[in-house]
Amino acid sequence: MTKLGELKKQLMKNPEFRQEYEKVDVEYTLIEEMIRARVKAHLSQAELAMKIGTTQSAIARLESGRVSPSLTTLRRYAEATGRQLKVGFV
Asked: How far apart are CA 68 and CA 12, in angstroms?
């Protein structure tokens, strides 16, 4: 049986797979940072939603990755959690 790490290493040799993986990895990294910011601010999803002016279910969808947030939403999320939003290209 192939271990997950070995399988990933093999798959990453394929340029198409690598490109798709890196695209998704950026999204998951952003989601993790959003959740960390909310937790560090000691806010529940419902409390954050009230500060932003949305619903808890909308926050849950954002944090699950089921929807892609706009820059305005990311800015409001950052402000509500006491953070600053920085966006850039590398």
From this structure: 25
Q: Which of 86, 73, 83 is nearest to 36 (CA)?
A: 83
Q: Shortest CA distance to 60 belongs to which of 4, 26, 52?
A: 52
pLDDT in tens, the chain (90 residues): 568 788 888 988 999 988 888 877 888 889 999 999 999 999 999 999 999 999 999 999 999 989 999 999 999 999 999 999 999 888
Burial level of 34, CB count in 10 A (0-12/13-18/19+)? buried
Say how far apart CA 69 and CA 58 lie, in whole Å: 10
Alpha-helical runs (H) found in the chain: 4-11, 15-40, 45-52, 56-64, 71-80
Distance CA 7, CA 44 (A): 37
Alpha-carbon gap, residue 11 to 31, rounded angstroms = 24
